[in-house]
Amino acid sequence: MGTTLRTLIFDIGGGIQNDKKFQAIQTGGPSGGCLTTDELDVPIDYDSLIAHGSMMGSGGAIVMDEDNCMVDVAKFYMQFICDESCGKCSQCRIGTKRLLEIMTRITDGKGTMEDLDKLEALSQSIKVGALCGLGQTAANPILSTLSKFHDVYIRHIVDKKCDAGVCKKLISYHIDPNKCRKCSLCARNCPVGAITGVVGKEAFVIDEKKCIKCGTCMAGCHFNAIYKE
Ligand code: SF4
Ligand code: SF4
Ligand code: SF4
Q1: Is 29 left (phi over 0), alpha (psi -120 to 50) or beta?
Q2: Of 22, 82, 164, 178, which shows the fewest CB atoms inside 10 Å?
Q3: CB of residue 95 inside a 6 A radius of ligand 1
């Protein structure tokens, strides 16, 4: 108690793997909220975390780096809450499902700006109408990311882009012909046969229509010739 998030993450925890950039820390479990770079010096205690839109909750903490999409993170927690809801009261039983549907729309690139207002209004209504703590705190990850990562929501809705490269419907894989060494490893590993080329002669290319965005090719290429955008 009283230790700052910065000390927890960078001293006690040893920092972020592969020197990735810190993006947020989610405290308190699935019903908690996230704190960002500006809040790294917040001390870990009940009042301070609540003052920053999160909580002690289960006492857990999950650190997100630049490779995490904060909209996807909030959707992930909402899926968990939907699974956990006992169904006794309608605000939680139905409301969280509607929240999940909206979040899915946004990560699929089909969200609208009106969806952001709906998320906010529905979240507040579930908060006051749910019977127990699970429902009352269910929308916290959405409210927290809406307020602290509003630009990331806008990017998904307006530009149809997921800059972290997580939301599958919003990304595509490509091979840089100048870097490709025509080794064919990616084509042999692709589970759906989406990559073609001629060994030693022709740079390999990805057929976007066939690609299921599994990322296997990118992870396996020894020459960093494959990128996603
Ligand atoms: S708020 Fe509590 S009682 Fe109501 S459906 Fe959710 S888990 Fe059940
Ligand atoms: S694994 Fe990399 S270098 Fe080899 S063919 Fe595929 S993209 Fe080109
Ligand atoms: S991302 Fe997966 S499915 Fe798409 S081209 Fe690469 S290996 Fe094939």
Answers
A1: left
A2: 178
A3: no
Contact in structure between 109 and 156 (CB atoms under 8 Å): yes
pTM listed for this prediction: 0.87
Minimum CA distance residue for ligand 1 atom 2 = 132
Locate 96 and state its tokens: 């969280």
**DSSP letter at 21?**
P
**Beta carbon of 82 within 6 Å of any ligand 1 atom:** no
Mean pLDDT, consecutive 10-residue segments, the chain of 229 residues?
96 94 93 94 96 90 96 96 95 97 98 97 96 94 95 97 94 96 97 96 96 96 95
| Whole-number pLDDT of residue 31 | 85
In a 13 Å sphere around the CA of 116, the CA atoms on its Cβ side amount to 17
Both tokens of 52, joined, read: 């920053």
**Domains plus CATH for the chain?**
1-68 (3.10.20.600), 69-163 (1.20.1440.230), 172-228 (3.30.70.20)
For position 58, what pLDDT does the model report?
85
Which two structure tokens, joined as six digits, stand for 57? Answer: 């909750």
Whether 181 is in the pocket of ligand 1, judged by its Cβ within 6 Å, is: no
The beta strand positions in the chain, using DSSP E, are 22-27, 33-35, 61-65, 173-175, 195-198, 202-206, 226-228
Q: Please choose from 190, 223, 224, 228 the residue to mutate so as to test ligand 2's pocket, defined by most ligand atoms within 8 A of CB.
A: 223
- Report the pLDDT value the prediction gives residue 220, as an integer from 0 to 100: 96
